[in-house]
Design goal:
mainly alpha
């Protein structure tokens, strides 16, 4: 009698689970019509990235919320990817990589290879300015998948990014060949944004190669197209490159015009990294004009900004976050394995109730005991592995904090020396200026001979000239000065 009651209970649970499964599938089928809204929101968010990253984040988060309600895996994945892009344009690197890892996980669940390829491309872009080798590794992973799928848009974009990676490594011939391939494909696809980016990158390459006519030709055309399309981010970065080109050619007025126009776009974007780069370009311009005091002001402003956030430890941080996400993904996968095993067993019981209930129930009970033992062993092993990985991550975090502390102390020392050097320069320049004032007073009272006055003024002018030359040499050749040299003897 007890065995009969057990069989009835298990049968009831099995049929109930099967009913819930069927209802869930039915609900999913009825909500598929809403997926088009998710796709539309993600497309709009992606297109807004160059104009206003905040709009990108707002629309992509709406798409994510709706996708989660629908359990639409591709929609969830693409929403996370676009949110990651929005955060990368706002320089929130750690948040961006977390979004990309989530996107990759959902694309894998959905079996979407093109989505995975796009995420590799996005991660490659994150590494672009800090680790060219890792950047290229991700681009080539993406390119392999894109070629298998025949995705021309993605292939064209990857050729562009691979060209940039090679340019960072100063492999200019290889970079040029990839840029030309990219430009040709984007023209065939009639992709104006891709054409703008290709022309901009070609301009940077020709500038680095000192082919100024070619550089200007490509950059001016890219800027014209960016303005027509109202693409704020590309317009700001193109103006930055154009200002460097004009400085290199000695066209200082044109350089200043490009800087002012680019800074206006940058203020709209609220992009601290671009603003920092423009500050350095202003310093370079004033230094070339020999406006040394103005140049020193821009240099001090640049030092006040935390330039370390754009380069120092970003590569390590991305790698660390990737490792953390992989460990969390393993843990989640272990939990999913358990849930799938339980769900599979339940469905198996539901489909087997019709024939020989007693025999199959006993068989499943024995099988469940064995599987539980195996699962417990596997869980124990996985928990031990996760614990070991956590210890490694803790040690890595500690080392990273120590490295940041050392670099912070080093930056404070340099800032202190910069302040001391500025005070020293002020004192050195005031001495000949005070002498000149004294000579003017003597001359006003006719207390000094004209020849002697001319001679003394000449000495003061020479002294000022020597001081200015000395300032210029220290600013342009920091290695000659003790300003940036640290004494680690203590």
């Amino acid at each position: 009698m007890k065995l009969f009651n057990i069989i009835l209970s298990i049968t009831f649970v099995s049929l109930n689970a099967y009913s819930q499964y069927s209802t869930k599938r039915s609900n999913n089928n009825t909500t598929n019509s809403d997926t088009s809204k998710v796709i539309k929101l993600n497309n709009q968010a992606f297109k807004s990235r160059f104009k206003n990253p905040d709009v990108t984040l707002a629309q992509a988060n709406k798409a994510l919320e709706l996708s989660l309600k629908l359990n639409y895996l591709n929609g969830i994945a693409e929403s996370y990817r676009v949110i990651g892009i929005g955060n990368s344009y706002k320089n929130f690197i750690d948040i961006s990589i977390e979004n990309y890892m989530n996107a990759s996980s959902y694309f894998k669940k959905a079996g979407n290879l093109e989505g995975e390829a796009k995420v590799y491309n996005n991660i490659g872009n994150l590494y672009r300015d800090v680790d060219s080798q890792k950047s290229l590794e991700n681009f080539y992973k993406s390119l392999k998948i894109a070629k298998e799928l025949g995705s021309e848009e993605l292939i064209a974009g990857l050729y562009l990014n691979i060209g940039t990676g090679n340019q960072k490594l100063k492999n200019y011939p290889k970079a040029l060949s990839y840029y030309k391939l990219s430009l040709s494909m984007f023209k065939n696809l009639d992709n104006e944004l891709g054409i703008i980016q290709s022309l901009q990158n070609l301009g940077v390459l020709y500038l680095n190669s000192r082919n100024y006519p070619k550089a200007e030709e490509n950059l001016v055309e890219a800027l014209r197209m960016a303005k027509e399309e109202n693409l704020i981010n590309p317009a700001a970065s193109i103006n930055l490159t154009l200002s460097s080109l004009h400085i290199a050619k000695g066209n200082y007025e044109e350089a200043e015009r490009s800087i002012k126009e680019g800074m206006a776009y940058t203020k709209t974007l609220n992009d601290e990294k671009l603003e920092y780069n423009y500050t350095l370009t202003y310093y370079e311009l004033e230094n070339k004009r020999k406006n040394y005091f103005a140049a020193l002001g821009y240099l001090r402003r640049a030092f006040k900004q935390d330039s370390a956030r754009y380069a120092n430890n970003i590569s390590d941080k991305i790698s660390l976050l990737e490792s953390q996400h992989i460990q969390l993904a393993k843990q989640k996968e272990s939990e999913l394995i358990i849930e799938r095993q339980k769900y599979t067993q339940t469905l198996f019981v539901a489909s087997s109730v019709v024939a020989l209930l007693a025999f199959f129930v006993i068989f499943l009970l024995i099988k469940n005991v064995k599987k539980s033992a195996q699962t417990n062993l596997e869980l124990t092993r996985l928990n031990q592995e996760v614990s070991k990985q956590k210890d490694v991550l803790d040690q890595t975090n500690q080392n990273l904090e120590e490295l940041i502390e050392v670099r912070t102390i080093d930056l404070k020392k340099k800032n202190k020396k910069l302040s001391e050097y500025s005070s020293h320069l002020s004192h050195q320049l005031r001495s000949p200026v005070a002498t000149l004032k004294g000579l003017m007073l003597l001359d006003g009272g006719n207390l000094i001979d004209k020849d002697e006055l001319v001679e003394q003024i000449g000495k003061c002018v020479n002294d000022l000239d020597d001081q200015i030359i000395n300032i210029n040499e220290n600013l342009n050749n920091p290695s000659r000065s003790s300003l940036f040299n640290e004494d680690y003897a203590d």
